[in-house]
Structure formats: structure tokens, C-alpha cells
Automatic annotation (TrEMBL):
Protein keywords: Fatty acid biosynthesis, Fatty acid metabolism, Lipid biosynthesis, Lipid metabolism, NADP, Oxidoreductase, Peroxisome, Phosphoprotein
Species in which this protein is naturally found: Nonomuraea ferruginea
Pfam assignment, any one: adh_short_C2
Pathway(s) of this molecule: Lipid metabolism
Complex formation: Interacts with PEX5, probably required to target it into peroxisomes.
Name of the molecule in the record: Peroxisomal trans-2-enoyl-CoA reductase
């Protein structure tokens, strides 16, 4: 079965100003393109100008897209880039999507490997969110953190990443409490397998034979556009009473055998 993803009204995000990290590829690009299509203006953020510019060339209205080249692990650069974006356009939505990991059993993760993944998937999201807070508070805006399916149950081969994303869930729920007084909402979206080039390159046949075929009750991967539609829903007026939630968009993977990035998990 294919995904029918475009269900929101054409103007669902009109007037919204958004910052999307990791907008140059995969899920972040799909989120960016859909937000622009729905009337938002978006600043994409990532390390590579070329891919960020390419996202702009695909946008429904290029005038409502710009980008900042920035490593989310560089606190000073993040504060400057988010500050410029907020001052220029305001900020009604932050999507913390930049992230990733390598896949290894916990015994194969060095201290440096642990740090790299925690820095990227937990600490950097904290840094970006804190830099965005004054602008989000001014706009009564929201944050969507892109997490992982199975964050509450574990996933073999992803100890560092699941730990980081569990931290993000705790952060999301805590800030949802602390910032409700400002009208700022925060939610997590947990995709299952999404066949972006990043995942396909990394895991190859394991993804098709196990994560999709055996690990996903709905027997298909999540489309990037499905994640994008959910983000737009949460950001717009329909999501106005949703905060502190984890919404898993994974074809039921977190209910079933789960998505483990070690082939032997399926033996
Ligand atoms: C739930 C559904 C299942 C699928 C879930 C998830 C899917 C996805 O997220 S799709 C995206 C997948 N692709 C990626 O995530 C690619 C991005 N990955 C990275 O950029 C790196 O893996 C990174 C997160 C570690 C960041 O890289 P960087 O900071 O450049 O790190 P270094 O290369 O300098 O290495 C730091 C540290 O990590 C050790 N390391 C790196 N790769 C591996 C590996 N494959 N196995 C074991 N260890 C690894 C590396 O040796 C360094 O450690 P030390 O030498 O001890 O410092
Ligand atoms: N694909 C999947 O199956 C799933 C993915 N996810 C998560 O969804 C998110 C997007 O994944 P996906 O689209 O597949 O992967 P991609 O690798 O295509 O996207 C990651 C994006 O993040 C950016 N990025 C990475 N590191 C940094 C950094 N240090 N500073 C700034 N930007 C950075 C990259 O751009 P650049 O390199 O130019 O900086 C890239 O555009 C990730 O958090 C991923 O873990 C969750 C569940 C499943």
C-alpha cells in the first residue's frame, strides 16, 4: 500500500516562520518542502551549503526559504545562526531533525563514539532549543523533536542513540511543563524505518529484509512525507492542545518485534 500523505488544508502553516535542522536531505528536506508548500517560511540549517541550497531549488516558493550553514555541535555558531534567523523572521516552529548514529553493539561503542552520538542527538538539540526559546516565547511557537521508533523499549545496535533520544523525550516533557506559561509546546515524533539514502547506505539489506519485512507490522517503511505531514499538523492550529507527546509513526514497529540494527536480533 502506498502512502497518501497530503491531507492538511493548503494554508495550514500560512504565516508560520520555521527553523529546520538537517534540512538538506532526507526527512528534514521533506519537512521543509511540505512546510513551505503549506505557506510557512523556512530557514534550513546544516553543515553543507550545497544540499541546503538544493532543498531551496525544490521548494514551492523559493522566496520563503533560506538557509544557515552551521554545525549543531558548535554552540557559538548555533547561538549566532538561531539569533540571526529569529531576528530576521521570528520563530514559530523549531524542528530538531539533524541527527544520526552508527550502528554497533554497546560493547563496540568507545567513549569517543558515545560522546559523538550524545553530542549530536541530545546536547545539540538542547543548544538549539535554548537559543530559539526567546523567539518561540514571543511567537507562542512550538518545537518538534525528531526521535526514533522504540525509544521507550530499546533497540539493539543503538544504545547511544536510544539513550540520547530518551533524554530528548525527558527534555521535551520537562520543557512542555516549564514553557506552557509562554504558550510554547514541544512534542517528539518517532519515525520507524524511513528509506532515506542515509539509512540505506548505512544498513543495506538488513533494512529491507529485517527492519521493514520482519520488524514492521504494517510491512512497509515510513515515507518522509508522512513524517512531514505529522510535523505540519503539530505545528499548526490543529496541534494547539498537544504538548509533551511522543508520536510514533512506524507502522506499529514499537508494538511488535522492534527495529534492531543488529542482524542477529532477528535470528
Ligand atoms: C528505529 C529505526 C531504525 C533506524 C534508526 C535510525 C536511522 C537513522 O538515523 S538514518 C541516518 C543514519 N546515518 C547516520 O546516522 C549517519 C550519520 N552518522 C554520523 O555522522 C556518525 O556516525 C556520528 C554520529 C558518530 C558522527 O560522526 P563524527 O562526529 O564525525 O564522528 P567520528 O567519525 O569522528 O567518530 C567519533 C567516534 O565514533 C566512533 N565511530 C564512528 N563510527 C563508528 C562505527 N561504525 N562503529 C564503531 N565506532 C564508530 C569513532 O571511532 C570515534 O570514536 P573514538 O575514535 O573512540 O573517538
Ligand atoms: N531514516 C530513518 O530510518 C530514521 C531516521 N531518524 C532520524 O531522523 C533524522 C533525519 O534522518 P535522515 O533524514 O534519515 O538522515 P540524513 O542523514 O539524510 O539527515 C540528517 C541531516 O542532519 C544534518 N546533520 C547531521 N549532523 C549535523 C551537524 N553536526 N550539524 C548540522 N547538521 C547536521 C545533515 O546535513 P549535513 O551533513 O549537511 O550537516 C543531514 O541533512 C535523524 O535524526 C535520524 O536519526 C529516526 C528514525 C528513523
Amino acid at each position: 500500500m502506498t502512502a497518501r500523505t497530503s491531507v492538511l488544508a493548503d494554508t495550514a502553516c500560512a504565516g508560520l516562520s520555521a527553523l529546520v535542522t538537517g534540512a538538506g536531505s532526507g526527512i528534514g528536506r521533506a519537512i521543509t518542502l511540505r512546510l513551505v508548500e503549506l505557506g510557512a517560511r523556512v530557514t534550513g540549517l546544516g553543515r553543507r551549503a550545497e544540499t541546503l541550497a538544493e532543498t531551496g531549488s525544490l521548494a514551492a516558493d523559493r522566496e520563503r526559504y533560506d538557509y544557515e550553514v552551521c554545525d549543531v555541535r558548535d554552540t557559538e555558531a548555533v547561538v549566532a545562526a538561531v539569533g540571526r534567523t529569529g531576528a530576521r523572521h521570528g520563530l514559530g516552529l523549531l524542528v530538531n531533525n539533524a541527527g544520526g548514529q552508527f550502528f554497533a553493539p554497546a560493547t563496540g561503542i568507545s567513549a569517543g563514539g558515545w560522546r559523538a552520538v550524545i553530542d549530536l542527538n541530545l546536547t545539540a538539540a538542547f543548544t538549539v532549543t535554548m537559543a530559539a526559546y526567546p523567539f518561540l516565547a514571543e511567537a507562542g511557537g512550538s518545537v518538534v523533536n525528531i526521535s526514533l521508533s522504540g525509544v521507550e523499549r530499546g533497540g539493539m545496535g543503538m544504545a547511544h542513540s536510544v539513550a540520547a533520544r530518551s533524554g530528548i523525550l525527558g527534555l521535551t516533557r520537562t520543557l512542555a511543563l516549564e514553557w506552557a506559561k509562554d504558550g510554547v509546546r514541544l512534542n517528539c515524533v518517532g519515525p520507524g524505518t524511513v528509506l532515506t539514502s542515509a539509512l540505506s547506505d548505512e544498513a543495506g539489506r538488513h533494512v529491507h529484509d529485517n527492519l521493514v519485512a520482519r520488524g514492521t507490522p504494517m510491512r512497509r517503511a515510513t515515507a518522509p512525507e508522512e513524517v512531514a505531514e505529522l510535523v505540519a499538523f503539530l505545528a499548526g492550529p490543529a496541534g494547539a492542545m498537544m504538548t509533551g507527546q511522543l508520536i510514533q509513526i512506524d507502522g506499529g514497529a514499537h508494538l511488535g518485534p522492534g527495529l534492531h540494527m543488529l542482524p542477529e536480533a532477528y535470528a
